[in-house]
Amino acid sequence: MKPTDNPAGSADSGRAPLMTELLVLPDGRILVHSLTEPFAELLRTLNPDDEQIRPRAPERPDK
Amino acid sequence: MTTVLVPTAAPAGTLSRHGRPALARQRAAAARAALADCRLCAHDCGVNRLAGPAGKCHAGADTRVFLAQVEVSDELELIPTYAVAFSGCDLRCAFCITGGPSWNPRLGEPFVAASIAAAARAALDRGARSVMILGGEPTVHLHSALELVAELPAEATLVWKTNAHGSAQARDLLDGMFDVWLADYKFGNDACAARLAGVPNYVRIIEGNLLWAADRSELIVRHLLMPGHVECCWRPVAEWLAARCPGGKVNLRSGFWPAWQASRHPELRGTISAAEAARADEIARDLGLNLVR
After folding, report:
1. Separation between Cα atoms, residue B58 and residue B49, nearest integer Å
2. b/e string for A16-38 if b means 16 or more Cβ within 10 A?
3. Does A11 contact B114 at a Cβ distance shorter than 8 Å?
């Protein structure tokens, strides 16, 4: 997503698209910038033992 | 040179949150007036930004936002945070992870304080713990940042994410406005700062601002480990922090990303090695730094 696609000036933040950037390295490390909550949940799902991600994506009570 | 009177309602560092929005409104007007002879950052350009884009940052009086969303990648004590990123910066770090919008203040959407404030309030109502203003470098758009502070709830935790390259004039306008300063100490010597970010006299300027911020707000200092720069940059930064900010919070970040124009510098074409990260951690441990995540 290009930065200009983010309607940051919109008052309706509920529909504003979110943006996270990932860099997947050949050794399997994942660098993340601007991590959003939905993406943190996705990363936690992929690797529940990742200590960097776990506190950033608390488990939902209904899961 | 234009003299800008900075409204103050209380001695520095003692402003209560209750009075913050009203004071921010006054300070925003002063910050906007200061653009006529802009000396908000240490470049001290003295250009008239009210007439249009000018100075090292190439910014005019209009502010644009390239990102405004709830994020969880920052320090655990601050997240979730509603992060508002202004386009434009006074530094030219070759490795900038937001290179395009950081270097070009004309990217992004026009800043409307009321709209962003409404979104921030909604995020706070949904559980965000703080509102963070960042860039680029938000000091470039200090007038807009203060306009936003004036629209936010007085009790909100406000975070100023900065390269700490602001001027004394900017500090006066910022005094008491933010609960947390999240400040970069990027380079441990002037030579690396000049070569990688095009900024002179870096160490003196940043250290002065960090000491000022530590005295007036909660300060968290960030250092991004760069490949090949553990000894020349991280070690001097760590030693200074241990000596001048003992016990202060330090976030040593090891996720260097060879972004933007990093490839212009051979040592910055890759990521941090495990050995470098371990060496950096060892330096931090030996100095007894208070590392936070």
Report:
1. 9
2. bebbbeeeeeeeeeebbbbbbbe
3. yes
Q: Measuring CA to CA, how many Å separate B10 from each of B7, B25, B155?
A: 9, 15, 18
Asked if B72's CB is within 8 angstroms of A57's CB, the reply is yes
Phi then psi dihedrals of residue B204, to 5 deg:
-60, -45
CA separation, residue A49 to residues A45, A58, B39, B193, B237 (Å):
9, 12, 48, 38, 32
pTM of the shown model: 0.92
CA-closest candidate to residue A33, choices B77, B69, B20: B69
Chain A: nearest CA to B134, how far in angstroms?
A: 12
- Decide if pLDDT at A9 tops 90: no
Burial label, A13 (beta-carbon count in 10 A; 0-12, 13-18, 19+): buried
Sheet holding B218-224, edge to edge: B109-110, B64-71, B81-86, B130-134, B158-162, B180-184, B218-224, B249-253, B290-291
State whether A13 and B123 contact (CB < 8 Å).
yes
* ipTM of the modeled complex: 0.86
Phi, psi angle pair for B292, to nearest 5°: -120, 160
pLDDT tens, residue by residue, B98-153: 988 889 999 999 999 999 999 999 999 999 999 999 999 999 999 999 999 999 99
Cα–Cα separations (whole angstroms), residue A12 to B86, B144, B155, B207: 19, 20, 23, 40
With a pLDDT cut of 70, the percent of chain B lying above it is: 95
